[in-house]
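Revision sheet: structure tokens.
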Amino acid sequence: MKLKYIFASIVATLALVGCQKEADHYLDAIKVSSSYVALSTGVGANTSITVSATDSWYVAIDEATAKWLTVSPTMGGAGESTLTFSAPAGEGRTAEVLIKCGEQTQHINVIQGIATVSKATCAEIIAGPDSKTYRVTGICTGIYNTTYGNWYLTDDTGTITIYGTLDAKGQTKNFLSLGLEVGDEVTVEGPKTTYGTTIELVDVTVIKINKSLIKVDAIDYGENLDAIPVEGGDVAVKVTCKGNGIDVSIPESAKTWLGVTAIDHSEGIVTFSARANEGGDRSVNITFVTTDGHKEYTSEATINQKGAIVAATVQQFIDADENDTVYRVQGVITGMYASDKQNKSFYIRDYSGEVLIYRAEGFEKSDAMVGDVVTVIGKRTSYKGTPQMGTTTFETLDHAVTEVDIPTFLTAGVNSSWYRVSGVVKEIANATYGNIYITDGTNDLYVYGCYPGVGATGDARKGVVAAQGIKVGDILTVFGPRSVYKDVPQVNGGFFWSLTPAN
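Predicted:
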């Protein structure tokens, strides 16, 4: 629940209490002895109010911005109860607590100390306490949500996240009405919270916007529309500059492939040239700088270049950095990801490892199932630190694998279809490559090579028998292509699927 925070001094609070209408905290279903709670600033601060309800009730509180406050109990029944508010030592903090009973909601405003607004730098906000209200001035260095107004504010001491921006009337979801752009100098005011490791000011009020003297108007890739082609080329950036000249800052990491070839100050056009790209897709944020003679103003633009799709094993993909590089990975589907209600996410495994493929577009039309060998294309992403493939495209169903018993495999006829088949290990003819005879007790089948997984070549094909502890009497399941050698059907270069050890 997103709660609106009310900030006032103790004096203002007492004045409000004095003119609070009785009906405000004497509702029909739930009544409180006071709708305002003031806590002292010292250790062990606490105070209580009385709650009288005609039915069961519960407390709602925004834990993100009021985690300094403890309310007990958090629920109760009909009758009279005592509600206690407590907090550790602190000052300048406010919160709003809601008590809900049936269709009615009672609002309790809580304050600890004097809720003054502190002028601060980003570094001081980062080091300061949560729930305290700060006023800070900095440059808007990035905007990532234009509905609620989520963006980054940077000054000489650091960067903080602005999570929610109120419009001129104090309303939410109207960020665009402010006209705030990357590069603008802006002063905001709002309460601090910490979300994980992210330092935020929440639902800020904009005090002042000082428009940047430089602004990126357009990026012209020519006929390529949205990116420099993989073979390299030029891109022109149109800039409006009201300052003294245009300077360009390219990150060191991009200077090996991107450079400035011309700056037309009169027309405001900066031309860049990129080298051929032998890797995956890449992009870089370029900073354009001007000055009024006293301070600098900046604006940013992102330049993109297409890249080749990089073929990778599962482990190479897992070990890769998270960026715009696109990878092509092949593997066998080992299971569906149950948490995806769209039923487009699954795990694939090759000889090197296993990874989640998240919402592969086109999968639902492919007829691919668990056990089939597929190829997917996507970027290396992660969820809570666990690698996965996101922004994914299902490319091909390489081999539909049919589960059969040994007699069905033997009589399938001459074909190159892929099958998954199980049997009891009867003989290990070659432990290095996994040449194994399996049987159902009546029929024998020769597995000419049991490799660790899809994609294994050279020495990577060796060692499955030892690695999996395969021995005579175990139940072994393999999958792979059917072939015939000297009129005898066999699994020709199969892959390990599972093993059930003998009792």
